[in-house]
Amino acid sequence: MLPLKVLITGAVGAGKTTLVSTISEIEPLTTDVDSQEAIGKNQTTVGLDYGRMTLKERSVRLFGTPGQERFDYMWQMLGEGVDGMIVLVHAGHDTAETDTEHLLDTLRAKEAADVPFVVGITHSDEAGTHPEALREASFAQRAAAVLTADVRTERDGQALIHALVDAWGIQ
Amino acid sequence: MATSDALHDLLYELSDAVPGQIHGSLIASRDGLLITETLSDSEEAERIAAMVATTLGVSRRMARRLGAGVLNETAISATERRIQMYLIGSEGALAVVTAADANVALINIQARKVVKSAEPLLRDTNP
């Protein structure tokens, strides 16, 4: 059987690199560098994150994208031929909804990634966040599932990938 | 003189040091933000700056995975142009667009001079 390809995407600071690290069974390949912008963290992905895992005896390749719009060519390159996506959304970012819609529009425009996706709402336990409002967003309505997730934990990382498995209908 | 002006002058000096062989160059931050450029299409420069960050980021990681050591440079060779890319310390990146048949050895020497001069300037602007 062909390995499945999963895109892990979302706007900057949502937790994409962390999720790849959490669920990958191999040491992930990352391309983090110091960030010169104030994005709520010190490091940012400029290329891709790559990891691999096994699901129901199938090999799954995990590709994490950069978050900033200036890297949108990487969204399209990495989005080619994907079987599904995990879209992470930071619950505390004011522009999370519009950034995520824009990102998904860009992927769909290239017909790269008109595939099932699940939404993971991250940082929802932090003060001043509004995870419930994000569940009403247009992209969330199109998602196969919407979960709140602490992507640092194996349990929540696995919950996201298994929601995608359910969307694929793999037994 | 503002840092970006000083960096811009470095790019012009680079161009003068290798007459007729350099079509443009840019300095960006390691996370892909344009700092200064002399490309013929300035609008495109912001997009290119992000791509330089991606290319150097992946190159550096590939070198490490292969046990090849510390990255010196990355080059793209195409039919009409060459693009040479260099890290500037831990903060920045330099990309130089040259003629396809340019003297690469000479451009490497001159570009490394720019890297050396630019490094303290970039470090001072990023506390």
TrEMBL record, chain A:
Family (UniProt): Belongs to the GPN-loop GTPase family.
InterPro entries per the UniProt record, alphabetical: Gliding_Motility_GTPase, Gpn, P-loop_NTPase
Domain of life: Bacteria
UniProt cross-references to Pfam families, sorted A to Z: ATP_bind_1
Protein name as catalogued: GTPase
CDD domains, per database record: Ras_like_GTPase
Position of the signal peptide: none
Keywords (A to Z) from UniProt: GTP-binding, Hydrolase, Nucleotide-binding
Molecular function GO labels: GTP binding; hydrolase activity
TrEMBL record, chain B:
Domain Roadblock/LAMTOR2 as annotated: residue spans: 8-98
Annotated InterPro entries: Mycobact_SerProt_Inhib_Rv3364c, Roadblock/LAMTOR2_dom
Cross-referenced SUPFAM superfamilies: Roadblock/LC7 domain
Domain of life: Bacteria
Pfam family, one: Robl_LC7
PANTHER family in the record: SERINE PROTEASE INHIBITOR RV3364C
Name assigned to this protein: Roadblock/LAMTOR2 domain-containing protein
Organism: Longimonas halophila
Lineage: Bacteria, Pseudomonadati, Rhodothermota, Rhodothermia, Rhodothermales
